[in-house]
Amino acid sequence: MDFRSFLIKYAEIGTKGKNRFVFEDALMRQMRRVLEPVGEFEVTKEFGRIYATASGEFDYEDALEALKTVFGIAWICPVVQVELLSPGQGAPDAARGCVGGGYTPGGEAIDTPVAVGAQAAPAAVTEDGPSVVPSGQDWLSRLKADVLAYVDMAYPDKHFTFKVDCRRADKSYPLSSEQINAALGEAILHGFPDTKVDVHKPDVLLRVELRRQVNIYSLAIPGPGGMPVGTNGKAMLLLSGGIDSPVAGYMIAKRGVKIDAIYFHAPPYTSDRARQKVVDLAARVAHFAGPVTLHVVNFTDIQLAIYEICPHEELTIIMRRYMMRIAQRVAVERGCQALITGESIGQVASQTVHSLAATNEVCEMPVFRPLIGFDKQEIIDRAEMIGTYETSILPYEDCCTIFVAKHPVTKPNLQMIKRSEWKLRERIDELVRVAVETREVVEVGDRE
Amino acid sequence: MEVYFDNAATTRAFPEVCRVVAEAMGVGYGNPSSKHNKGMEAEMALRKASKTIADSLKAREKEIWFTSGGTESNNTAIFGVAEAYKRSGRHIVTTKMEHPSVLEAIKELEKQGFEVTYLGSGVRACGDMGDMPSAARHLHTEAAAGNMAQGGFLADMGGTDGGNFIDIRELTSAIRPDTIMVSIQALNNEIGAVSPIEQIGKRIKEVNPRTVFHVDAVQAYGKYPIFPGRQYIDLLSASAHKIHGPKGVGFLYVKDGVKCRPMMYGGGQQRGVRSGTENVPGILGMAEAAAHYMAHREDIVGRMEMLRGALYRGLGTLGAYVGADAVKRGEDDDPGGALVPNVGSQPGGRGRLGGRAGVPALTGTPTGVPVLAGTPTQGGIFMVSGPSGGYGAHIVCAAFAGVRAEVLLHALEEKGIYVSSGSACSSNHPGTSATLEAVGVPRELLDCAIRFSFGAFNTPEEVEYTIDVLGELLPKLRRYAAK
After folding, report:
1. CATH superfamily placement of domain A234-444
2. Residue B18 is among the residues annotated as catalytic for this protein
3. Which CATH number among 2.60.120.10, 1.10.760.10, 3.40.50.300, 3.30.2130.30 corresponds to the domain A5-222?
């Protein structure tokens, strides 16, 4: 007996009304994407639930790790599924308890509200589940055997308290859920004398669901939550190579937003290693958000023009304003509806409220700043969690750290900034156009 | 044009090395420990390689331990000697200018309770102090008071006590009765300064005959004649990929009778001193490279010296070209612009590792490099390596005032020229080079040092091209120097 199937529980999608299927389909698409390298899986939707079931060899831990990266998943429950066959179609004992093995509530029909189908024919299935007609005690003893096998597999150490929670999608079973709970509980206590029942705070809550098949599960591993990527538009992430921006990208992607990224490099002031670092970070974001298109913009000439013509202490603000302008142009071209930055109030001179306002002034589309109220340590914790921190702290220059004034303005005056930018008027439009047009587009897959 | 001037980092393998390595992998692939013929074939090849290496040092085969390279050799020497001799004492002498594979190993011993004396540099970088800003002027004073005074670092390395990369007097007073080891680099990897190894070795043995002398010769092996037996060297580290051999292989010479505890235990290969199946392709490749180097040493080193001289002269002319502007800028707004390269009128001394009569000179002066007279018009390039004697033929380190080394490195890279920056750092993680600091490079220039290093494949045209490119790049890059 092995876990071959994962039951996926989702929280927020469930609240969506008529377009619920859009969310479920996106979730299934993302699950298929991450499971593809793990093995062959069938991802199916069944009665408002999503299952991923392996059809071949696979590594359980790898599958779990993959599913943990899919936004929209609240809980991952590894499930043992035993098929429910129609009465009289007894499965060979040898196959019972094994994957693909049959489970049949054999015996005669008693108290059945639903007519029995032809013998040996598959059960007719209604929206609510199987319409097979279980009866007698045969099916129960087999169910007990399966549950015992499950407990034995899932819990090598039998010192725990438990509670059985049975649900019947098909209410035609001769016993009530309560009665089945009691019968199974007794069987477990009998089979494993070290266990104890605790109906209030059990260590193990063993769920047994009698659906078209029998689901036995007790583990629930938390997923990342959020909403499946692709359900909520697309946004352009300004990716710098620092700690913050990949975290910002992660957080917005978690709300279902597809991500494009833009990076400004300034050779020879920044190296190809710094660029590679950003590609690596984009790949890490893609690990969660799906493949990311990264736009690498050569910013050197713009930076040098600003450096030459504008007051030094305004350099960073003006530079950031041009980055936003360029990002916005590329975003429009790429069909994005918003920009994303990793800014956080007061972290550096260019992120004071005044500076943020001055930077924001050039933007027409909404700018998402999910880290705006975070402390540095909170951001670092998240970066560590999503696995970008190690890469982010590699000591390569990015273009923001070059040419930094000793005393940059912290309360930029918009009029003065505009006046400085006016001095650039003869050259800047052409420089921006060239930067946008000569950008390099890198498709960053989710497994790089 | 691709110009590879980073040969102190690693080198392209000689074509015959590639052939030997490929053959050892594809044909003579046996395990030297196997009892059958295929194994014996490999063992014989290994013995031949062993002899080639031993001969290059005039040493015996059993004194050669094959390793995975310079780092393993240095680590084995330091930990091996410390472990073997810790009962006789727990004091070690080294210098601040060593390679990290020595320094970090010794720091680890320090944590374990060993006491360490770190020697400073006996030389000062840069000389002529024409029109220097304050930081450099301070350097001048210091230098004038010290070893620079007469002849500076160019003093004959086999000669007096003063004026060398290693100050013999300082070394002498550092050695104590409980000093078990002195570890000193033969040729500094960052600036190319040469240590008077024989002189040092002789002095160590005079002060304390029981002190073990380890020499990190990773940059010097092959290029210069080193004969441990005659130079009082007990252990010597070398690496193949610095002399156009394969990466991942090197050796440690351990003088017969000197105790060095093995670091690897296992199948008892190499007489038990370094277990693990021998890296036969690597070792054969290293022997091939060493043999080639030995046979053509004068040609190769002579050419490198010529290239070094040409680069030095070229940088001088660049100074002249950039200078007028730089001086003007120096007066206006550029604090780092008016530095003058070291262009002293020092006599071209002949530095030698050997220093013994009959032993060829280690570093000759590149035949009379016309060292430039220091004039203010040469502002902006601070020569960290001296112009000739006392410095290895293959390394020139220069600091370009007003241009961050990393930026210049990448700008050169765009033109196909590969060099190293003195120390890898960034604004987030200021890295400092102990060597550059030890030789007194002014603080504001620590970030501007570029190392050019030559190998057997470089040509005068490449130097010319590099000078042209620098002449083009420097004014542009300086235009955007930090405000």
Report:
1. HUPs (3.40.50.620)
2. no
3. 3.30.2130.30
